[in-house]
Each structure stands twice: as C-alpha cells, then as structure tokens.
Amino acid sequence: MRSVTTGPRPGRDVVDPLLAEHPGVRLIVHGDDADLAAVVLRLLRRSALGTEVAYLPVHRNSAAVRNWGLPSSFADAAGLARTGTARPQPLLRDDNGGVLVGRGEIPDLYGEAYCDAVRVLHGRVPRLVVDAGPDGVRVRSGRGVTAATGRAVQIGTTGATPVRDGEPYPRETKRWAWYRHTEPWNPVLPD
Prior knowledge:
Blueprint: H1 12-21, E1 27-31, H2 33-45, E2 52-57, H3 63-68, H4 74-83, E3 85-86, E4 92-94, E5 99-100, E6 103-115, E7 118-133, E8 136-140, E9 147-150, E10 152-160, E11 163-164, E12 167-168, E13 173-180, E14 186-189
Parallel strand pairs: 1-2, 2-14
Antiparallel strand pairs: 3-14, 4-5, 4-13, 6-7, 6-10, 6-11, 7-8, 8-9, 10-13, 11-12
C-alpha cells in the first residue's frame, strides 16, 4: 500500500496526480473533517466519485465520524480503512463550490431557512446546524425544536458567514444552500 503524506486540505496538486498514477486506488484520509472534504471535492471535480474513501480522523469528536457511524478509536478506524466495504452514500454540495462531509453551521443567523418544504427558521438563532449523513441533509435551527431531514436546505439572511466542516467561508453571504448531489460518493463504512 502506497502512502502519500500531505499538508492540510490537500488539493489539485496532490490528489489529481495520485488519482492519475493509481486509478481505482482506495484513498485513506488521515486528518480532520475539512481534510476529508478537500479530498472529496477533488474527486467531485475530477468526476471520480466512484473512488473508495476511508477516513482516519485526528479528532474523536469529528462530526463526520458521528454522522456516518465510523469508529472513534484510531485502531478500529484503521482496521475499517483497510478491510471495510465502500458503499455509495449521498454527497452534499453547496451552491458556492464546496462539499459537506460532516457538519455545516451558520452562526448568529437572522433570516429564513427551509429544508425541502419545511420551514425550519424564521427569525434569529445563535446558529443553524446542518449535518451530512446517510439520509441526506439534516438541519436544526439551534433552538432544538425545529429540525428536518431532506434533500436540500436553503437559507436567506441579511448576511452571515457559513462554516463548512470547521472552515469558515471566506466572505459573508446573503444566500446559501446545501443540497444532495446527483451522484453519490463512496465512503468506507461499518457493516
């Protein structure tokens, strides 16, 4: 098994040559949720979502670990990465060119949000939380009362900065959407 060590958020210069040199290889990402998202984004952009992706998280409290039912111990995650089975799962994208593999948040949000046809927010909340997982998109308004699961969540606001897998978007925006992509990705998951 070949190992490639990279810095955080591996991009085109690392992932693309690896895929070209070793087509059909299983990628094992050892990092945080944003590192995993960076690799999956490259797979999306290269039309290589069929590539198997295993995840060895550096943090036990990873949202991707919780949402996808992955083991939190390194030894168990390493075993799963080597011998587990990849299965097609919903991939969440956003309308600004990113993907979401764990958790998205919009802190201090004043606006309105819908998950499919369900209004989950009208007004102000300390944060809106969106989780990626096997059921697609799950959204909570932060009040703990209004929650929904569906294909997409659309947000309109007076201005906010979304956070994707722990990485803040570089500028404030008035509209944002996370939605289920037409093609699945192939994470290695427990049986």
